[in-house]
Design a protein that fits this description.
Elements lengths: L13 E6 L10 H17 L2 E8 L3 E8 L4 H21 L11 E4 L2 H13 L1 H4 L14 H4 L12 H4 L5 H14 L3 H13 L6 H10 L19
Antiparallel strand pairs: 1-3, 1-4, 2-3
Length: 231
């Protein structure tokens, strides 16, 4: 089955995943992690994309971002991907592809899933057994949101500001939310939607997206279409 074209809608949050080819490592040194963050910062600003959350794992990375234009995310990801691979290959004396095809992306309904998606992203290193607390992992936006460091790459979404009236209150509320974790059902929905390209949200949200594009935004119902019998 042909892959669906990616759907990008200005002003809407997108959950993005880019994996290494055959799940191979895409980072070998600290300089590699730092390079990708620098490229993301440069190109997110250039393409007017607000990056709300990120995590760089050993063989993949996640982003949560809102573009101002339909071209913002594709152009950002293309520029980042090309420059990163070129530098990575030169640095580590390798050739060939690094990525597992094109990046995966989908839209999520902000008021229903954005904070859950941020927690999902932050908890990746915990699920992978790399750390016991997301605050221990240096290559994510979590430390920014709990007040441990200022990360110039991060642009908080308005829903984050609604967590409290002061920086301390927001930091504490966010830390508590991530510590509580997310339900397995939400975790699976966030993974499946990003990998398969289906919009994630309530029926009214999905229906509104479908009115904006000819591209299907949800899985087609199973079975043959119903046909009317002749009299």
């Amino acid at each position: 089955m042909a892959r669906l074209p990616r759907l990008t809608v200005p002003g809407q949050p997108h959950h993005i995943i880019q994996r290494g080819n055959n799940r191979q490592a895409i980072f070998e040194t600290r300089a590699d992690y730092e390079l990708l963050l620098e490229l993301l910062d440069e190109n997110a600003r250039k393409q007017h994309v607000a990056l709300h959350a990120y995590v760089l794992m050993s063989n993949h990375f996640h982003l949560l971002a809102t573009p101002e234009t339909a071209e913002g995310i594709p152009q950002m990801m293309q520029a980042v991907g090309r420059r990163y691979v070129r530098t990575y290959n030169n640095r580590h004396q390798r050739t060939g592809t690094l990525w597992e095809g094109r990046y995966r992306s989908t839209l999520i309904q902000a008021d229903r899933y954005l904070l859950a998606c941020m927690a999902y992203i932050d908890l990746n290193p915990v699920r992978a057994g790399m750390v016991s607390d997301p605050a221990q992992y240096p290559w994510s936006s979590h430390q920014h949101y709990i007040g441990l460091k200022a990360d110039k790459l991060v642009t908080p979404h308005p829903l984050y500001w609604d967590l409290g009236n002061t920086p301390f209150a927001r930091d504490q509320a966010y830390a508590d939310m991530v510590r509580a974790g997310i339900a397995q059902e939400q975790q699976q929905a966030l993974t499946d939607s990003a990998l398969r390209g289906w919009a994630l949200g309530e029926p009214d949200y999905v229906a509104d997206l479908q009115r904006r594009t000819e591209r299907r935004v949800t899985r087609a119902q199973a079975g043959r279409p119903v046909t009317r019998k002749s009299a």
